[in-house]
Design goal:
Layout lengths: L27 H20 L2 H17 L1 H12 L3 H27 L2 E3 L7 E9 L2 E5 L7 H12 L3 E5 L5 H14 L10 E3 L4 H9 L4 E5 L2 H12 L5 E4 L4 E5 L5 H13 L9 E7 H16 L17 H16 L3 E4 L3 E4 L2 E4 L2 E4 L6 H4 L6 E7 L2 H9 L6 E5 L3 H10 L4 E4 L20 E2 L4 H7 L1 E9 L16 H13 L2
Parallel strand pairs: 3-4, 3-6, 4-5, 6-7, 8-9, 8-15, 9-14, 13-14, 15-16
Antiparallel strand pairs: 1-2, 2-18, 7-17, 10-13, 11-12
Helix pairs in contact: 2-4, 2-6, 3-4, 3-6, 4-5, 4-15, 9-10
Bound molecules: nicotinamide-adenine-dinucleotide.
Length: 499
Amino acid sequence: MSITPLRPGSADGRVPDRDHPSSTTATADEVKRALERARRAQRVWGALSFRERARYLRRVRKALVADVDGMVATIVDDTGKLPTEALVNEVLLVCELMRYYERHGGAALATRRVRAGLLVNKAAEVRYEPLGVVGVISPWNYPLVLALGAVVTALFAGNTVLLKPSEITPHVGLAIGALFDTVADQEDGLGDLVQVLVGAGSVGEMLVRSGVDKVSFTGSVATGKAVMRCAADTLTPVLLELGGKDPMVVCDDANLDRAAHAAVWGAFTNSGQTCMAVERVYVTAAVYDAFVGKVVDATRKLRQGSGRGHDVGPMTWDRQTEIVRRHLDDAIERGATVAVGGKSVTIGGRPSIEPTVLLDVDDSMLVMREETFGPILPIMEVADAAEALTKANASAYGLNSSIWTRDPVQLEQMIAGLEDGSVCVNDCLISYAIPALPFGGVKSSGVGRAHGIEGLREFSKTKSVARDRIGLRNEPLWLPVPRWLDRGARILLRLRHGL
Ligand code: NAD
């Protein structure tokens, strides 16, 4: 790794400042030279078999686990999140994704024979080839799993990577670079598999314009649109993993204890700073009071604080806290009731907000329309499941949703009706933790898919190969046009298509 303005793990616990992200920012010249090095490394890496690449990346996974405490500490320093959240939701999740691709990626990228249809004298196959160099731009809320997850997926597919981590969490980005350094043997030509470019949005924009072969972007809808506009100039393909406003639908027959505990976890884990957090709950009238009682009880018991022994950590930085406060104040002004929480607090030096349950909410409130990205759980009473479905879909977002019912017929209708990239049944958030399931949004929540076979193929060029099997001197379709061709085509049309 060539650009190391900060030492991994050296964060001093300051609240991050997005306007002054780090002492050093990658320059246009550094981006250009990094791309040249990445192209050279890709020629070596892309020529390896999948098995060889998987063996190498297994060493990276082992190196990550060998220094798990160092990585957890770096994540905690950069974000303020609880150590257990860093361990489980970041290190363990990304290790599981890597293990899945080590085992199943080879089959997903293997050359596939397909039928040649009418052309019985041809053989046809589909190949998946590396794109070249992938630019990964990542956010601050899960700075390891969302950066390293995209990085390794691109690598498994035979690409090399330029990573632009969030300026709020640069040390985790640099720790990812250092992780690859520990495995790289300079003799093997693989020293530049992953290069880290530190800086704010301007560095991200340089990366998009640099000539990389694809951009994998995870972040807000507004920035995602800017990235897509910018990438259009060079027709650079983009994978966009954007924000959400995920609904939870609780029906009459739901297991209320389980649903209430899930809502509390889904809304407050990582202090609500999760793209697929539960941000809106629609509960049918018959069970509304009972559900609310259970959620409020469970929320009252939460221990908010910094470090081990707590359930909810601080928020990461002040600008996000301000957005959450604005949503909360707007809701209260418009008549919402705070059932529990609601106060601004400082935890571990970071401005935060208490885990808050909001009742008496309506569709005009910001907290029901825009992504809040903080520890707020608004609950709305609806007449029935049909109204819940209509409200759940009345959103610009479509990332993930959860449906709580024991009725299989109702369940199938809901799964088919929900306009989201993934749906969790009697559970929430958990689809992300299943590496074989493609993850991504519809509507404003994104374009393309991470994880699963689909995620790996996002970073591959599909090449179609048609091969002649017989070697005739002349083919029926070639020139001169055979006299019988017209009549023969009509016979085929009648036989195969009922003309
Ligand atoms: P953000 O859009 O502000 O920044 C994301 C990244 O883009 C950062 O690295 C930033 O420096 C970079 N960037 C900023 N301007 C850029 C530009 N013009 N060109 C290129 N890059 C640019 O998002 P954030 O605040 O870091 O993250 C929070 C958002 O990310 C939330 O909306 C959340 O829902 C979303 N998110 C989505 C997913 C998902 O998988 N769908 C996961 C996590 C977070």
